Design the sequence.
């Protein structure tokens, strides 16, 4: 079906869904797709995408470090970690791709008991204070609403100026 879409459409085709490893991505690309979006396959196992040296717990630790650097909301982080360590959404093809490296040593029950970053980091041995708010390059990466609000205020000011000009022109 992918090949037919690629042939029939004049726009680049990006395929999404159920690529469980490098072979699936390569097959979709061979059929002519310009790109592939990978979700569950990458959450379940990075081994199929070239990260063969990392365990699931290594990937979770890396993810936690990035969440701390970017000041990601804890609930979102916990949800993604739980998705990473469970296999409830796997198809049979996905289950066949699992290796021991794909299984976390931390249980879902342990993660569900955790109520904050401190507890989550403790489970995986991530030093919170070392990671929080700064990248390795020393660049501040803490989320701040002001980043978005600044542009919003500028737009509001422009709209207000236009209203004033319009009102003045009508007088």
Sequence:
């Amino acid at each position: 079906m992918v090949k037919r879409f690629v042939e029939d459409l004049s726009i680049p085709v990006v395929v999404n869904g159920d690529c469980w490893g490098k072979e699936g991505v390569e097959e979709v690309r061979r059929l002519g797709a310009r790109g592939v979006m990978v979700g569950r396959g990458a959450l379940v196992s990075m081994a199929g995408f070239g990260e063969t040296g990392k365990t699931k717990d290594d990937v979770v630790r890396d993810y936690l470090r990035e969440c701390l650097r970017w000041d990601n909301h804890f609930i979102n982080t916990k949800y993604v970690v739980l998705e990473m360590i469970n296999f409830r959404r796997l198809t049979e093809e996905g289950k066949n791709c699992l290796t021991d490296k794909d299984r976390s040593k931390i249980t879902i029950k342990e993660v569900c008991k955790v109520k904050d970053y401190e507890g989550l980091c403790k489970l995986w041995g991530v030093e919170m204070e070392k990671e929080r708010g700064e990248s390795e390059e020393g660049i501040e990466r803490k989320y701040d609403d002001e980043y978005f609000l600044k542009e919003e205020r500028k737009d509001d000011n422009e709209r207000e100026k236009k209203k004033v000009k319009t009102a003045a022109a009508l007088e």
